[in-house]
Amino acid sequence: MAERYTLSQEWLVGDLPGLVVNLEGLAPDAPLVIVLHGLGGSKEKMLPVLYEFARSGCRAVAFDVRLHGERSDAPARE
After folding, report:
1. SS3 per-residue string spanning the chain
2. Closest CA to 59 of 10, 35, 23
């Protein structure tokens, strides 16, 4: 039987866009893994890694750090 995943795009905190990948039927208390991209990256480039963590039974989350991906034009906060 093929594994089924849920992929959602969510606003994690305020204006922080993120991706969340879960294996369907994942326990509510499953471990959470936060994946950060490297320089020049984006949350979308981390999808293969998110699916690997989800396959191992974790809830996997990635987000764009300031000045990357959807936040590439985000103003600096003072």
Report:
1. CCCCEEEEEEEEECCEEEEEEEECCCCCCCCEEEECCCCCCCHHHHHHHHHHHHHCCCEEEEECCCCCHHHCCCCCCC
2. 23
What phi and psi, each to the nearest 5 degrees, are found at residue 5? -125, 155
Q: 23-43, pLDDT tens digit by residue?
A: 888 888 999 999 987 777 778
Whole-prediction pTM: 0.76
Closest by CA position to 40, among listed 61, 64, 21:
64
Residues in the chain, overall count: 78
DSSP letter, residue 56: T
Residue type, 63: F
* Six token digits for residue 32: 């959470």
Question: What are residue 21's DSSP bridge partners?
Answer: 7, 60
Structure tokens at 72: 């590439």
